[in-house]
Amino acid sequence: METLAAGTARRDASPVPSDKGLAKAAEDAVVLRVSDVHKAFGDLKVLNGISFDLRRGDVMSVIGASGSGKSTLLRCINQLDPPTAGEIYLNGVPFGFRVDASGKRTPDSLSNINRLRQDVGMVFQQFNLWPHMSVLRNITEAPVRVRKMAKAEARELAEQLLAKVNLLDKRDEYPARLSGGQQQRVAIARALAMNPKVMMFDEATSSLDPELTGEVLDVMRGLGEEGMTMLVVTHEMGFAREASNRVMFIHEGRVEEDGPPEQVFDNPKSERCRAFLSKSYR
Amino acid sequence: MDVWRSIILKNLNLFAEGLWVTTQICVIAFCVACALGLGACLVRLYVRPLRLPATIYIEFCRNTPIYVQLLWVNYVWPDLFGWPQSFFAAGWMALALQSSGYLAETFRAGIEGVDRGHLQAAHSLGMSPFLTFRSIILPQALLNMAPSIMNQFLVLVKSSTLVSVIAVPDLMYQAMRLTAIWFQPIEILSFTAFLYILIVFCLSHAFKLYADRLRGRYGLAMA
Amino acid sequence: MESFKEAVDISLFWEYRSLLLGGLAFNFYTWISALVLVHVMGFSMCMMRLSRVGACRAVGTAYAELFRNTPEYILLTWVHFVLPLLLSVLLQTRLNFPPFLSAVLALGLAYSGYMVETYRSGIQAVPKGHIEAGRALGMSSIDITFRIVLPQAIRNVLPEMLNQMVSLFKATTLVSLIAVPDLLYNVVIVTQEEMRPLPLYTWAAIVYCVIIFTASTLVRWLTERWRSRGWA
């Protein structure tokens, strides 16, 4: 069975016109560009200029102490907490702001923001499944109401995704009857149903019992292997090292370290990163 | 026992008529109260410039005794607004006014009680504010507030006895009239009290059962 | 517009102020007296309800269910018109209740039904471990009830209790129905003389609203203060 994420990756990887240079091709592959993003809550500065590019198929783990701004970064990217300054581009399209003819930037309309949000899947620490809807409806609600997909089609899609996260037998249950790990897998399926270009995970396993984190991490790992572009805020150093191709270490709202896992884990340049890792690996 | 046979059994049809009027007035008043309450609550929460008037409306409805409101609507509104022209309409309007204040606060508590994370999940999927409200906030608020909403209906049924004062021929009115005609208050009023207690008791237990079953269906803890 | 001006014209209300506001005193008398009954009956019936003896429990439960499910108005008429007759038959004398007594009895009974449940929820919210800790220290059950359970229970339900007291004040307007000369009763009387219902009823509504709004705002404010101190 051709899975959804893999399908997306293939469709998007349309042949680059031959007259364009390699640099342009690399540019095209940037799915998410975060450029000098700042975020302050009142006087409290949480993000102090974060920049990075996420290319198609990248799985990037974001690590750092609690309070370092990892979660805020994700929430800034899909405009749940709009950044105070800086720019975010999704497939080259400005996300959350608009540039008019004179070059002035204004906040974008909510309907435009919502259109772009559909392409960014988000999985929350607290799952946030809607308790009054069955598992199946949790997944079909957004495709049907937002994407205007036909109900039967959405149902089929939801069942495919549930099969993928191994929960097809729970499709008519209500979330409150599922374990935390099962709820989180449903939440992943819900995000995938919108056929996103990027998936963001906000400490997706932090509120799970240790014996339940494995099943969720397995699903995430599988997604990465299928070529899904992912941005993963996590405390699971094992996942960051083995399942991601890039690791970013954030400290006090700044990127301290950004590179392949081997480099960040075995050979960190930053003193703070070394201190953080030695504490995490004790 | 004579009184029982000669008055109550003979006039059962009057009691039944009264009960029918009580039912009508309660159902109409409750529907109107839900509409007014939801409207007032939404305005208070989401329409910034009209927040103060909505708050004043809600507080006035909640903090004025129902009997005072009844007389006020009945004697003052026709001159003030040209409506209501019948005692029946004045009756349900006053009951609705009172309940709408309480229901508005109930709805507000329900809406504000919805987990913020559920809303963020909806936003992150690109749902519009209206869609989020309709398919995430409102159903959850109603589910969580079901016991309070149903309880408000019981309060309304109990208050509905007062409409007899402005000559709406409800159950209480029929009882008072029969008492005035036959002067046998012991049997007539006791029987009427028994009817009311039975109705409210059965309704409250049926509602509780229903609310528990509703929450149980979604795997939520009992209220 | 004319009728609106008439409705908010306070001069008539002001002319009869001593009569009308004197009536307000009856609202307060009824309220205070009924409150005593509410708490006495509410507390003792709650103790019955939580008793270990099955019969006591049944009485307490029946009491709470009965008065919670009875409309106040029918209870009022029943206590005023039926109860004296029943007692007359029982005691073989002619008995009549003055309206004020009936009013206090009826409202007191009606709201004590709620108070049983309020006390109960407060008491049951006290963690079992606290009682066991008391037992482990060898305290008597009376000491445990009055020194450990009740002080905590009352803190738990004080806001709810105060809200019910405000509701009771709202209900005191019903006493005019059995001719206790409260504010509303006097408004009806004056209306019959002056034939100007608009300002009288409107101002009666405003006066009650202001009093009850002030009281419930005070309750809300106190509740928040207690909560912020971790008290209630």
Labels describing this entry:
heterotrimer; A: 282 residues; Rossmann fold; six-stranded mixed beta sheet; four-stranded antiparallel beta sheet; 11 helices; 12 strands; globular; C: 232 residues; mainly alpha; MetI-like fold; 82% helix; 0% strand
Count, helices of chain C:
10
Into which percentage range does the β-strand content of chain C fall?
Answer: under 5%
Radius of gyration of chain B: 21 Å
Low-confidence stretches of chain C: none
Number of strands of chain C: 0
Describe this structure in words.
The complex is a heterotrimer of chains A (282), B (223) and C (232). In chain A, 39% of the residues lie in helices and 24% in strands. Chain A contains eleven helices and twelve strands. In chain A, helix 5 (135-145) runs parallel beside helix 7. The radius of gyration of chain A is 19 Å and the shape is globular. Chain B has one domain: Orthogonal Bundle (MetI-like fold). Chain B is mainly alpha-helical and 223 residues long. Chain A binds chain B through residues 75, 78, 80, 110-111, 114-118, 120-122, 124, 126, 128-132, 141-142, 145-146, 173-177, 187, 190-191, 194, and chain B through 115, 117-118, 120-129, 131, 135-136, 139-140, 143, 217-220.
Set down the secondary structure blueprint:
The complex is a heterotrimer of chains A (282), B (223) and C (232).
Chain A: H1 4-12, H2 22-28, E1 30-41, E2 44-55, E3 59-63, H3 70-77, E4 85-90, E5 93-94, E6 97-99, E7 105-107, H4 110-117, E8 120-123, H5 135-145, H6 151-164, H7 180-192, E9 198-202, H8 210-225, E10 229-233, H9 237-243, E11 246-251, E12 254-259, H10 261-266, H11 271-280
Parallel strand pairs in A: 3-10, 3-11, 8-9, 9-10
Antiparallel strand pairs in A: 1-2, 1-4, 4-5, 6-7, 11-12
Helix pairs in contact in A: 5-6, 5-7, 6-7, 7-8
Chain B: H1 2-9, H2 12-46, H3 51-63, H4 66-75, H5 77-81, H6 87-112, H7 116-124, H8 129-159, H9 171-182, H10 185-217
Helix pairs in contact in B: 2-3, 2-6, 2-9, 3-6, 4-6, 6-8, 7-8, 8-10, 9-10
Chain C: H1 2-8, H2 11-15, H3 17-49, H4 54-68, H5 72-91, H6 99-124, H7 128-136, H8 141-171, H9 183-194, H10 197-228
